[in-house]
Structure formats: C-alpha cells, structure tokens
Q: What sequence folds into this?
C-alpha cells in the first residue's frame, strides 16, 4: 500500500530522474523507465479522485497521455503516434471540462489561446514537414481548445462563486502549462534547439498533468492509500 499523500513526491522524484537521464547526467536508459513511471504515478494520484462522468474522462486523458509518452521515447518513429495519442487525450480533457460548462460558453479564452497558437504556428510553419502539417494543426486546435475550455470553466466558476472554483483553477493552470510545454517542444523540434530543453519541456508537462488531475475532488479521508498493484 502506498500512502496517497506521498504520490506527488514520488512522481516528482521520478520526473527528476527522467530529466537527469535525458539531460545526460544519468544513463539515458533510465529515462525510458522513469518517464512512463512518472505519468503512471500521476494516474494513480488521479484514480480515486472526483466523480463520474468527469473522473472517467480525465482518467482516459491521462492513460492516453501515458501512451503518448511511450511513443515519444522514440522521437522520430513515434512522433506521429504520440501526436495522435495526445490529441485523443485532449479530446478527453475537453469533454471533462465541458461537464460543468458548455463548450465555448466563455469565448474570451478561446480568442486568447487561438491568437497564441496562431503566432507559434506561423513561426514554425515553414519548418514543419508537409506530411505532418495536417496532424500538427489538428493537434494544436485540440490543445488550444482544451486550455481555453479549462480557462472558461475557471472564470465561470469564479463569477458565480461556485464551489468548484478551486478545482477549475487547477484545470486552467494545467491547460496553460500544457500549452507552454508543447510550444517549447515544438520550437525545440522544428525551429531551434533550446538550452536545457528536457528540463523545461518535461517539468511544465508533468506539472500540467498534475494540475489537471487536481481538478478532480480529493478522495475522502486524509489517510487515503492506494494499492500499488491495481491503482486503487
């Protein structure tokens, strides 16, 4: 049995080992172990949280993200499958954030994120291979929609003084960080090699996933534990 409150610390430790491995400080093969393990720990953290149907949708998004993480361990061969896995993850997150609020009910966030996405895409467009342009555009639309819908949920809950305002704030922060992480990843892949890219890309990615998992209500009981074998 793993004490529930230790899961964020375990995930942070696993993520740190991944970053050190992909930064050349530790053997690279350790990254192939600890990268999926970190996301798996985020899934275990999220598993007992929340109520249906939002819980199942966020669970699905995290599991699809884990698949994407595994594909992207091979950046060339796995890029397109990883892109598709994360696109599906964002669709699951969008559906989850539509549970408390109709899609695009708060349009300001959609305008802001669309502008940010358009600026980044216009810069990277000449460097993106022709065969990848369609999938990349579809992915960016889903990513920006997810972030904007999370932002809209937060603004709506604050405006109505709703009980879920704190949860919605986590979702909005997760969406923002996901946009930042994927923008860094795309710039590093298609435009210019960024210094300490593994650190910034993976750090923002896992904090984003942790924030999205935290958008689900905490399980009852401060001493909650999870079974290390089945995630409950």
A:
């Amino acid at each position: 049995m793993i004490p529930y409150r230790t899961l964020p610390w375990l995930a942070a430790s696993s993520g740190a080992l991944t970053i050190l491995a992909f930064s050349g400080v530790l053997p690279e093969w350790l990254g192939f172990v600890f990268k999926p393990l970190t996301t798996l720990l985020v899934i275990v953290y999220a598993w007992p949280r929340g109520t249906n149907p939002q819980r199942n949708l966020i669970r699905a998004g995290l599991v699809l993200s884990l698949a994407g993480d595994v594909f992207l361990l091979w950046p060339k061969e796995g890029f397109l499958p990883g892109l598709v896995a994360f696109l599906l993850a964002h669709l699951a997150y969008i559906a989850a954030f539509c549970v408390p609020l109709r899609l695009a009910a708060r349009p300001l966030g959609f305008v802001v994120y669309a502008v940010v996405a358009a600026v980044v895409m216009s810069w990277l467009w000449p460097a993106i291979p022709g065969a990848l342009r369609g999938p990349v555009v579809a992915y960016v639309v889903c990513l920006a929609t997810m972030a904007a819908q999370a932002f809209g949920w937060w603004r709506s809950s604050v405006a109505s003084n709703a009980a879920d305002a704190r949860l919605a704030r986590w979702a909005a922060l997760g969406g923002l960080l996901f946009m930042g992480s994927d923008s860094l990843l795309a710039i590093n892949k298609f435009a210019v090699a960024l210094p300490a890219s593994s650190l910034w890309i993976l750090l923002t990615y896992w904090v984003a996933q942790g924030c999205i998992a935290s958008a689900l209500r905490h399980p009852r009981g401060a001493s909650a534990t999870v079974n290390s074998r089945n995630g409950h």
Summary: Helices lie at 7-22, 29-46, 54-71, 79-97, 107-124, 130-159, 165-190, 197-214. Residues 16 and 179 are 21 Å apart (CA to CA). Residues 130-159 form the longest helix (30 residues). Residues 227-232 have pLDDT under 50 and may be disordered.
